[in-house]
Amino acid sequence: MMQRILRVNMIDRTATFEEVPEKYKVRAGRWLTSSIVASEVPPTCHPLGPKNKLVISAGLTSGTSSPTSARVSIGGKSPLTGTIKESNAGTGFAHMLARLRIKSIIIEGQPQDTTKYWTIKIDKNGPSFLPADEYVGLKLSEAYERLFAEHGGLSHTSIMGIGVAGEYRLGAAGICFNDIKGRATRYSGRGGMGAVMGSKGLKFIILDDTDAPGVEIADKELFDRGRKKLADALLAHAITKPKGALNSYGTAVLVNIINEVGGLPTRNFRSGRFEGATKVSGEALFANNKERIGKEVYNHACSPGCIIQCSNTVYRKDGSEHMSCLEYESDWAFGPNCEIDDLDTIAELVNKCNEYGLDTIEVGGALAVAMDGGLAEFGDGKRALEIVDEIGKGTPLGRIIGSGAVTTGRAFGVSRVPAVKGQNMPAYEPRAIKGIGMTYAVGTMGADHTSGYTIATEVLGVAGKADPMNSNKAEMARNFQYATGFIDSSGHCLFIAFAILDIPSGFEGMIEECNGILGTSWTADDVGRIGKEVIDIERVFNRAAGFTKADDRLPEFMTYEPLPPHNAVWDIPDEELDSILG
Amino acid sequence: MSPPPAYTNMRHIEIHLYGKLRRYAPDTDPRADSVLRVAGDGKTIAQIVEEIGIGKRDLGANIFVNGEYSDLERMLHSGDRLALFPDDMQLLYKWYFAWRK
User: Fold this and answer.
1) How far is A148 from A225, CA to CA, in rounded Å?
2) What range defines the domain where residue A173 resides?
3) Residue A429 has what DSSP assignment?
4) Cβ pair A461:B69 closer than 8 A
5) What would you report as the CA-atom Rg of chain A, rounded to the nearest whole angstrom?
6) Comparison of pLDDT for A104 and B4, the residue scoring more
7) Interface subset of B 53-82, CB within 8 angstroms of A
8) Do A403 and A424 contact (CB within 8 A), yes or no?
9) Do A279 and A294 fall within a single domain?
10) What percent of chain A is modeled with pLDDT above 90?
11) Looking at the complex, does the CB of residue B18 fall below 8 Å from at least one CB of chain A?
12) Reported ipTM
């Protein structure tokens, strides 16, 4: 069986397998979703209307024994930003989709009856449609528990779905996948793709890979050589190795580091330092857990086959599990950004977002903007919990916050809205770390740290050269965006970047395993070429959707409000921003 | 944001320690600041690190002075805030660090 594209029409709930066009055969992940969206979705369409599509693709190496390769990309036109969007998640869903030899699922059309919801179940025999109305309004943990009980165990089943936020079509609605233990917690969070899924009347996609044919590998020997080199690099690097920074402290290891740099956005981007930072850090979480369950807890994998294993678990004071996983950006969004310095409150805010199907960065950002507008006091965790519950209930206030920071800023008359192209900035202050600001400005999907992780060289120092306050980095910002374009297509988690940029054999390994699977003969130059192609495809879409250079800018307040402790303003000239991607 | 008044002591270097380096400070709880104050005007970070007794193997490469990424040869002045992260939180290989100027 060849790889196929599954095209689903939600108007009459029909689905057909199509041959993969020749030009798409070597594409996957973000490269494929952005290619399909750019060629099939009218750039000026309404993101929640009938002409938008939801495009799903696992990465090139997903479904194989390659390490840390379980990323699945979701593409479409974003209701939050109006741009093209690719949002990826780490989940066994990616492996199963690839093993079923489904190169992409394209969800199109819009049913007349907007109150009915459906599940698409896909196994080796193909797709079937099941009513999902009984799951409407449920918290996602309960829904996933019931779905796993009904459709089979974790070893062969994986779920993609939306919560109430997607049913309400909110700009902060994400798409939720199960983690390695079946928890409804791994997100394609950003850009409101959950709202697009909801607008199609689609509640869940359930995969069953029992007796699936598996991924075809053109040159097994080359693939094995490559994956071993990559695995060795991940096992050797201080950031990605077992009991290394990410495995011990999770991504929240960054709280203290970014705080020391003066780039931890605090109180809705009024300061780069948070006095309560140490209380909400990865170290604090590690210490709490040790105290609460009586032993050191190292982190676990979000998905099968990951070497890095950065997902933490938060335990309650009585030793029971509260939630997993508390990522750095989520921790920051409700912590420093809202001046909440209690980890248990932050964990519960993130847990609520997981239950309602929400993007934690956008909700935390909107909440901080609303606090700035007087809705609540900064630091008031109790009120924050109530407000997030309003989103779950779908009240008018909840719908405003759930529509994101820009809508919230308008509703509350706030000018300090840290968004680019409609999307709230994540946990890195551009006035203190200029390179990330350049990425926010010109990225194809609004303010997004993952579209070019310049933090890696600037603060984490992976390439060891850059200084966070040095602003001459157009070339670095460009190259990181291209590298990211490739990694997001490879099926690998972006965190392999630490190891492959530092360890040349790891980088070679990544290319060799791709060549081994596809039968291609890519070199390092092709990585740059493919990454550039991905970004170019997305920029063409955005231009046709009406975006211009004027949209590639940071919010005005950052140019005149100095950010403590460096008291820096955003001062990168427009011409320099325009030179990044040309 | 300036350091809170209680922490400000213009005659000293204020050292913020993280991870296993916290043990060199009076307060080692990772849920609070572990701060060590030393006299060190005109000394380099390397000299101060040696005086505290931090072994080179334990020190990572994420070293910041007043929020600026810094190398070991940087000279410190009274009132500076020095932040040190250990090797198992380090996000940079030591051999990069050794060659940084």
Assistant:
1) 36
2) 4-208
3) -
4) yes
5) 22
6) A104
7) 60-62, 64, 66-69
8) no
9) yes
10) 88
11) yes
12) 0.89
Cross-strand partners of A568? A563
Rg (CA), chain B: 13
Q: How confident is the model at residue B97 (pLDDT cuts 50, 70, 90)?
A: very low
**pLDDT per position as a tens digit, A303-338:** 999 999 999 999 999 999 999 999 999 999 999 999
Which residue in the set A278, A279, A462 is minimally distant from B91, CB to CB? A462
In-domain check, residue A231: no
How far is CA A471 from each of CA A434, A441, A466, A552, rounded to the nearest angstrom?
6, 14, 9, 17
When pLDDT is averaged across residues B29-51 and rounded to a whole number, the result is 95
Question: Is residue A316 in a domain?
Answer: yes
Residue A143: CATH number of its domain: 3.60.9.10
Q: Percent of chain A having pLDDT more than 70?
A: 96
Is A577 within 8 Å of A447 (Cβ atoms)?
no
- Residue A433 pLDDT greater than 90, yes or no: no
Q: Which of A106, A284, A293, A187 is nearest to B32 (CA)?
A: A284
Share of chain B above pLDDT 90, in %: 52
pLDDT for position B10? 59
Q: Nearest residue on chain B to A262, judged by CA atoms?
A: B67
Which residue bears the tokens 């965190």?
A495
**pLDDT grade, residue A434 (50/70/90)?**
confident
Q: From the list A249, A261, A498, which residue is nearest B67 (CB)?
A: A261
End-to-end CA distance of chain B: 28
Residue type, B53: G
Residues contacting residue A182 through CB under 8 Å, at least 6 positions apart: A144, A145, A148, A154
Q: Could you tell me if A271 and A366 lie in one domain?
A: yes
Report d(CA A271, CA A337) in Å as an integer: 9
Domain membership flag for residue A347:
yes
Residue A303 lies in a domain: no
Domain count for chain A: 3
- Indicate whether A484 and A402 sit together in one domain: no
Return the number of other C-beta atoms located less than 10 Å from residue A547's C-beta.
19
Indicate if A406 and A456 belong to the same structural domain.
Answer: no
Give DSSP secondary structure letters for chain B.
Answer: -PPPGGG--TTSEEEEE-GGGGGGSS---TTS-EEEEE--TT-BHHHHHHHHT--TTTEEEEEEETTEE--TT-B--TT-EEEEEEGGG--S-HHHHHH--
CATH architecture of B5-99: Roll (3.10)
Same domain, A12 and A150: yes
Contact A445, A86 (CB under 8 A): yes
Give yes or no: residues A394 and A433 share one domain.
no
Distance of CA A34 to the CA centre of its chain: 15
